[in-house]
Design brief:
Helix content: under 10%
Number of strands: 28
Oligomer: single chain
Order of helices and strands: HEEEEEEEEEEEEEEEEEEEEEEEEEEEE
CATH architecture: 7 Propeller
Shape: globular
Distance between the termini: 36 Å
CATH superfamily: YVTN repeat-like/Quinoprotein amine dehydrogenase
Strand order of the largest sheet: 3-2-1-28
Radius of gyration: 20 Å
Length: about 375
């Protein structure tokens, strides 16, 4: 009888393990956090189990996984790194059994305040945005996961209408279309989306033609997502708390503005700024976080036009949701509340896109970003 029970239960146990995966969290370390943390995420229930501190490092605010799943990369969002006026990027190898991270090497990000990074589809190039420096840089990735010195460094120039926030460039994010031929970079300081050609084999980026697209002056573009069908780009503006929809040509990376909608509820009068944006796997819904209103805005996508309609503002149950993530199944959303040092999970209705709190909250100092190890 015991043998029979074991034979019956073993597949169920293994199936449950298959539903669990590692989620890494990047943090600010000025308070109680010390670096990069990991949680075991149960995709069947949406619950998180802490695995502890995986790597101690200063301000690893944004993380990116290598497509092989063997390496993880983190910005060190600093203005001084290794005695120079720059930030850093740190490479780690991943122990898939324990989640532990082993540092491989560190390189200068090329400018102060690196705030976002991404690895290309081939796993040969890493790109980073330096906010304080107003620059973009790219780095070759070796077969061992280590980073080489910068292969490209592009210093942006210009300004926009808000002289207190936009007197100079502020590179804020880097994004890649599926064809891996271009890199799109949001520049909050100039109200532009910079467009680069990507040479992944040599780890280089170069300005494309057209070289950029623009959002409404004073909006301050921060993060963006590309629709699964690669026909539209959705740009979240920090200063405007708005999302601009662009028609996108994957062959040339040309972008044509179609529409702009607010991410804030009607009648909201306080101060708020946009932070993170994501899109559902099926492309039917877009999500954006508001810091100040402290909510996740949910938008329905018109699949014919690509335009957005705001359908919900769900409280993140904390303050300053700097970032959030949809889990790989698309059934749950995890939001980090930087100011109140908590994370909260929400169930996603796959039919309507709407969010509802699961009731699960977790304590972690200044959580910023989340990545899931497949």
């Amino acid at each position: 009888m015991k043998l029979f029970s074991a034979l019956v239960l073993a597949p169920l146990f293994l199936a449950h393990l298959a539903m669990a995966q590692i989620m890494y969290v990047g943090t600010y370390t000025e308070g109680t956090s010390k670096g990069i943390y990991a949680y075991r995420f149960d995709a069947a229930t949406g619950k998180l189990a802490s695995m502890g501190l995986m790597a101690e490092t200063p301000d690893p605010t944004f993380l990116a996984l290598h497509p092989s799943g063997k390496y993880l990369y983190a910005v060190n969002e600093l203005n001084t790194f290794q005695g120079k006026k720059t930030g850093g990027v740190t490479a780690y190898s991943i122990d898939r059994a324990t989640g532990k991270l082993t540092q491989l090497n560190q390189v200068s990000s090329g400018g102060p305040g690196p705030c976002h990074l991404i690895v290309d589809a081939t796993g040969k190039t890493l790109m980073v945005a330096n906010y304080a420096g107003g620059s973009f840089a790219s780095f070759p990735i070796g077969a061992d996961g280590k980073l080489g010195e910068a292969a490209s460094f592009i210093q942006e120039t210009g300004s926009s209408v808000d002289k207190s926030r936009q007197s100079e460039p502020h590179a804020h994010s880097v994004n890649l279309p599926k064809n891996n031929k271009f890199m799109l970079g949001a520049d909050l300081g100039t109200d532009k989306i910079m467009i680069f050609r990507l040479d992944a084999a040599h780890g280089k980026i170069t300005p494309s033609d057209p070289p950029s697209a623009s959002v409404k002056p004073g909006s301050g573009p921060r993060h963006m997502v590309i629709a699964p069908d690669q026909k539209h780009v959705y740009v979240l503006s920090e200063m405007g708390s708005s999302v601009t929809t662009f028609e996108y040509n994957p062959d040339t990376a040309a972008m044509k503005e179609l529409d702009m909608v607010s991410a804030l509820p009607a009648g909201f009068k306080g101060q708020s700024s946009g932070a993170e944006i994501a899109i559902a796997n099926n492309g039917n819904f877009v999500y954006a976080s508001n810091r100040g209103n402290d909510s996740i805005a949910v938008f329905r996508v018109d699949k014919k036009t690509g335009k957005l309609t705001l359908i919900q503002n769900q409280s993140t149950l904390g303050k300053q949701p700097r970032a959030f993530a949809l889990d790989p199944t698309g059934n749950y959303l995890i939001a980090g509340n930087q100011q109140t040092n908590t994370m909260a999970t929400f169930k996603v209705d796959r039919n309507t896109g709407m969010l509802s709190p699961t009731g699960d909250k977790y304590d972690l100092g200044a959580p910023v970003t989340f990545v899931f190890l497949k």
